[in-house]
Amino acid sequence: MPESPEVEALTRFLDDEASGREIVAVDVLEFRTVKTRATPPAALVGRTISGARRYGKHVALAVGDANLVVSLGRHGWARWHSGEPRHEHSSAETSVAPPALAAFDLGDDTTLEVTDAGTWVSLGLFVVGDPAEVPAIAKLGPDPADPSFTRAQFDTALGGRRKQIKAILQEQESIGGIGNAYSDEILHLAQVSPVAHAAALRSDETDRLFDATLTTVRGAIEARRGIPIDGLKAAKVASMRVHRRGGETCVTCGDTIRDFTFSSTSAQYCPTCQTDGAVL
Questions:
Q1: Domain edge (last residue) among 138, 173, 198
Q2: One domain for residues 124 and 155
Q3: Most C-beta atoms within 10 A of its C-beta, which of 205, 210, 225, 228?
Q4: What CATH number did the domain enclosing 261 receive?
């Protein structure tokens, strides 16, 4: 699942490379991606892109007086072709290159494609006046990547709730931009169990969790700077200390990283670092 560090890198790339380019043609190959049928992506033909901005796990391209919002969903991503032969690369998570669901011709042999590697279509395209018209963006919680993100906002998100902290970290209405992978990384760095309830956390655990959230998200954004967009997923996978590392050795303590499945999701954690040795 795309998360804020990789989506931020994608957004910066599009802001640099797509700004100033006119949308010459639009080819929607999967019509289920279009969420604003009254104003489809084809309505943007002839307009010029003026910039890109990230909202959680969404990318908004400013196009004239409108915004093309790409909701990346669970397996969405983008490909950029500019004046060179197209070579399809398999992603770090699939053996076959994901199909393009829509393509935007930007002239000068340059094309932006949006893709989805999932077995069902999760990527969505919205053409709106204001990105906040997209329901998921309107409900987004504060973003730890934002310099204005405060401890008070973090404490409000936790709110003394009797809910597992891993679920809260991934709850976009509470904290924007974090998904399954980085929640595992945050919890490992903070030495907090993924199944601990927010209401049960000690003050020192909450302190560590806040610091780990900022360190993990902002550090990953900085680490992804300058990486080509077709290499971002691989860079993310390579950077993980515990996520998808079940059976491997914890780099912190040397224990074995464990897998744990619950509530239709999964987590990887270190018993020594996070659960006082208990195997979940």
A1: 138
A2: no
A3: 210
A4: 1.10.8.50
For residue 83, name the pLDDT band (cuts at 50, 70, 90): confident
Question: Is the distance from CB of 130 to CB of 138 less than 8 angstroms?
Answer: no
pTM of the model: 0.93
Q: Which has the closest alpha carbon to 125: 172, 55, 59, 48?
A: 59
Encode pLDDT of 107-125 as tens digits: 999 999 999 998 899 999 9
Total Cβ atoms within 10 A of residue 59: 27
Q: Which of 111, 138, 165 is the last residue of a domain?
A: 138
Q: Total structural domains in the chain?
A: 2
Specify if 145 maps to a domain.
Answer: no
- Name the residue among 5, 17, 24, 10 with its Cα closest to residue 53: 10
Rounded CA separation 135/217 (Å): 24
pLDDT in tens, 50-81: 999 999 999 999 999 999 999 999 999 999 99
Whole-angstrom CA distances from 18 to 15, 49, 59, 127 are: 6, 6, 13, 17
Do residue 124 and residue 226 come from a single domain? no
Q: In sequence order, what E strands does the chain have?
A: 25-28, 49-55, 58-63, 66-71, 76-82, 100-105, 110-116, 124-128, 258-262, 265-269
β-sheet with 49-55: strand ranges across? 49-55, 58-63, 66-71, 124-128
Shared domain check, 167 and 133:
no
Query: Residue 84 has what pLDDT?
Result: 60
Cα–Cα distances (Å) from 42 to 62, 79, 81, 239, in that order, read 15, 19, 19, 38
What is the domain range of residue 207?
A: 151-274
Within a domain: 143 = no
